[in-house]
Every structure is written in structure tokens, then in C-alpha cells.
Amino acid sequence: MNLSIFARLRILTCAALMSAPLALAPAWAERADEKELYEQLTLFGDVLEQVRRNYVDAPSDKELIEAALSGLMSSLDPHSSYLPPKGFEDMQVETKGEFGGLGIEVTMENGLVKVIAPIDETPASRAGMRPNDLIAELDGKPIMGLTLSEAVELMRGEKGKPITLTVLREGEDEPLEITIVRDTIRIRAVRTRIEGPQNNIGYIRLTTFNQQTTKNLKRAFNELPAQIGKNKLAGYIIDLRNNPGGLLREAISVSDTMLEKGEIVSTRGRNEDDSSRFSARRGDMARGFPIVVMINGGSASAAEIVAGALQDHHRAVIMGTQSFGKGSVQSIMPLPNSGALRMTTARYFTPSGRSIQAKGITPDIFAEQQLPEDLKGRKGRREADLRGALDGQDIDGKSNQKGKKKERRNAVAFIPPEPKDDKQLSRAIDLLLGLQKAKAAAKPTS
């Protein structure tokens, strides 16, 4: 007997439902849910069979199913997605810190690719890509209709091959055509230099949270005091601006390097298995020196975990503008076809129980950047502006939006190319020198 896809799907669904264990207490409710699920899967089977039989061109079964999976995942929230085998492979390569492409962290918004932040010292950064840019076309072909994984795959490619991006930028009357030459992207997760009028401040910029971040941060905490001189060192500036996040475990270990004890972050999911609590171990590699952490609207996810942990433990002063507000955790679930699901499975909370979802980290000291003329007056986008973004709930289940003070305008996340033009950095240096003086004055005298 030659059964249609629809018929086979119905038989498999019935078998799966019949084999499920029946609970005694809520049996009727469960059976009603199972019936509704069966009806919806039957509808899906009907639609699939109609497309296979009657669409004007014979479609690929594989592409149809992958499109259905992509639609299912992207309908949940802006950060959940289906990764086909190639997309999953690319993601694994990227977290190791080296891949071929443009060098931008992106998400999807209203069918277009939205830039969260360009990565420092990459082709995208050098070409002038900015946070909140919307990419509408790639080499003249519309992005609308593609999944995020498909769009990312098109932007990646062989070193030396150019690609032209059609970019919609707020404040520009016409779309911008930006041509970028692909290169091998080696993400330097940690960059360091010496700052301050007396060359006594250790500046550490974290650009992302990949597998190299904690290792390189520990190296920085060892090398900078040796370069500056332990008796001369005033403290550290940790720059998390335009850091789009990355691996949760790296955010935890980065926070741990600057804390002696206490909770770093907790996660709460729908299932008990998705709830965890992570605490610091003894050993502050900053050795108690003052720390100023810089954030802006491009600081997201893992960057916000670090800022929130250091803020709640009063280990650092947070300076800058409101952060992006991505307070959810995505789990990677490998599939039999060598692809994977990237699915939101939990919300995370700072040590005090705050959720930054759709809200962000509020700096202790607000410091706006001096913007170039073409950026003045523009509004930056944040998590709360994304279609389908989760609501923010603190650990007690109450909305994190209630009773909040009127927020300042969402400024565009911008870092001047030259440190001498970076007014936020100048303020951070002044603040750190003030903290050093206050600490010295507080020491008991004999």
C-alpha cells in the first residue's frame, strides 16, 4: 500500500500519542491536549501534501521541512532558531574564535538582518557598519524571506571575496550600499593597553565571550601589573561596550576572576533541569584594585551578566548608558540530521534577583558618548524593541518594568575609533583615579 506523507504522518502521530503513559489525575485534560495536537499535526500534514502535489514547481521535501522548522522556532522569540547542519557547524567554529566572513553579530528583526554590533578590527568594523543597522539586501538580493541562518551563511565566504550590503540606517534618507571584502575573522576576545595621564591604569576590552575570553583575561590580569608596576597601578577599566555576548560559561568564569565569593548568576526555566545557580570561588585576580566597567546599548547577554554580578556585589562601578537588555539563555540541542535547535530555555537573574530582560543594566553613573553629527538625535534599538521579545520578570515573578524611573533616551551605541576622542573613556579614567584616591585616604594610618 502506497501511503501519502499525510497518511504516514497521521499514523506516526497516533502511535506516538497511544504509546505515551496516561496519568490518572489530569487524564481528561491531557487527552484534550493530545487531541488538539493530533488535529494540528493533521492540518500540517494536509498542507504539506497539498504543497508537494500542487505547487507550480516541484518543491524539495528537505527544504519544505527545514522552512517549517525555521518558522516554528523563529515564531517563539528573536533568539530561538533552527540551525541546519551547515549553520550548526558555522556556529561551533565561531565560538572557537576564528571563521571566514565580515565580523558582525546579528539578529533578525521584521524579516531583515539587524546588526547588534560590529566586531572590533574586522572588515565590517573598518567599513563603518554600526549597531542597529538593518541589512536589507546582499549583493542586490533581498533578505526578506530568508532565515537568519541562511542570511549569515550568505555573508560568510572565502577570504578576499567582496559582498555588497544594502543597509537601512536611521537618519539616512536613502539605503546605503556598503561593499565589504570578506576576511578570516580571528576574534581577539581580549585587548589591553595602558591608560591614564600617569600610565597607571590597566585598560581591558572584552569584545565577545568565546572559548578564549577567560584565558586571555587572566593573562591580562597577570601582565598589566607587571607592565605598569604593582606600586603604581591605580586599577582597571573593563570595557564591555558593544560586546554582544556569547557563551554563558565564559560570562560566569569572567565574573569569577574578579569576585571572591557569592552568587554570579542564576537561571530559571520552565523545567527544573533548566534552573541553575552559579557562585564564585575564592581568588580575585584584580587583587582588590578598583574597577570601572563600561557599558552601552550594544552590551548584551553575557556582557550584562558580568556587569550585573559586579554591580550587585559592589565590586565595580558601572558607567555608561543603559545596556541592550537580553536576559534569556539559549540552549543548543543537536538533532539527528547534524543540525541543531537554538532554543530559549531559561531567563537569567543577577545575584539580587533582578532580570535585565527587555530592561538592561542601569549604570551607576550615566555617561553619554559624544556623537558625530550624523548620529546625533538618533535612537538606539534594544531588546524591548524586537518583535516577539520575552517580557521581563524578576526572580519573584513580578514584572521588572513596574515602578521603574523614567529611562533616559536610548542613545546610539558608538565608540570613537581614536581613544583620544572617547569622552566616555575619559570620564572612566577620571572616575578610577578618584576611586584610587578615596581608597588611599580610607587606609588606616599608623
Query: What is the mean pLDDT?
Result: 89
- CA-based gyration radius: 25 Å
Shape call: globular
So, the CATH homologous superfamily of the largest domain?
A: 2-enoyl-CoA Hydratase, Chain A, domain 1
Question: Beta fraction of the residues?
Answer: 15-25%
CATH level 3 topology of the largest domain: 2-enoyl-CoA Hydratase, Chain A, domain 1
Number of strands: 19
Your description of this structure?
It is a single chain. The chain is of the alpha+beta class and 446 residues long. The chain folds into 2 domains: 98-186, PDZ domain (Pdz3 Domain), CATH 2.30.42.10; 190-441, 2-enoyl-CoA Hydratase, Chain A, domain 1 (Alpha-Beta Complex). Helix content is 30%, strand content 22%. The protein contains 10 helices and 19 strands. It has helices at 5-19, 27-54, 61-74, 85-95, 123-126, 148-155, 213-228, 248-256, 302-312, 423-442; strands spanning 81-83, 98-101, 104-109, 112-118, 134-138, 141-142, 162-168, 176-181, 183-186, 190-195, 201-206, 235-239, 263-269, 276-279, 291-295, 317-320, 328-334, 340-349, 365-366. Strands 3, 4, 5, 6, 7 and 8 form a 6-stranded antiparallel beta sheet that branches. A 6-stranded mixed beta sheet has the order 10-11-12-15-16-19, with helices on both faces. Strands 1, 13, 14, 17 and 18 form a 5-stranded antiparallel beta sheet that branches. Helix 1 runs antiparallel to helix 2 (27-54) and helix 8 runs parallel beside helix 9 (302-312). The longest helix has 28 residues, at 27-54. The chain is globular, with a radius of gyration of 25 Å. The termini are far apart.
